[in-house]
Amino acid sequence: MEKLLDATGKVCPFPLVEAKEAIEEISSGDTLTIKFDCVQATENIPRWAAEAGHPVTSFEQVDEGVWTITLQKK
């Protein structure tokens, strides 16, 4: 299963807070794609994912100041 979280327009730390909540709603092996436009989250989300053991399968800038990151739940 793939879950999409659109956190664009939300200031940090809300993209990270919502990502932590969203990953709890999916099963191990499922993916969570987060779309965001908060620059701080480009560092905060990958750091949290690494610390929590969720592999990052994709991380790209999709528009001016907008990124998506895909995590696979451990």
Outline:
This protein is of the alpha+beta class and 74 residues long.
Task: Walk me through the topology.
Elements: E1 2-6, H1 14-24, E2 31-36, H2 41-52, E3 56-63, E4 66-72
**Principal-axis shape:** globular
**Number of helical stretches of at least 4 residues:** 2
How many runs of DSSP E, i.e. beta strands? Answer: 4
Using only CA atoms, what is the Rg? 11 Å
Task: Report the end-to-end length measured between terminal Cα atoms.
Answer: 14 Å
Unreliable runs:
none
Structural class by sheet pairing and helices: alpha+beta
The largest sheet is:
4 strands, mixed
Fourth-tier CATH superfamily name: TusA-like domain
Q: What would CATH call the architecture?
A: 2-Layer Sandwich
Q: Strand sequence of the main sheet, in spatial order?
A: 1-2-4-3
Number of domains: 1
Please report which band the strand proportion falls in: under 5%, 5-15%, 15-25%, 25-35%, 35-45% or over 45%.
35-45%
- Helical coverage, percent range: 25-40%
CATH-derived topology: Translation Initiation Factor IF3
Order of helices and strands: EHEHEE
Structure characterization notes:
The model has no long low-confidence stretch (mean pLDDT 97). The protein contains two helices and four strands. It starts with a strand and ends with a strand. It has a four-stranded mixed β-sheet, with helices on one face. Helices cover 31% and strands 35% of the residues.
What descriptors fit this protein?
74 residues, alpha+beta, Translation Initiation Factor IF3, 4-stranded mixed β-sheet, 4 strands, 35% strand, globular
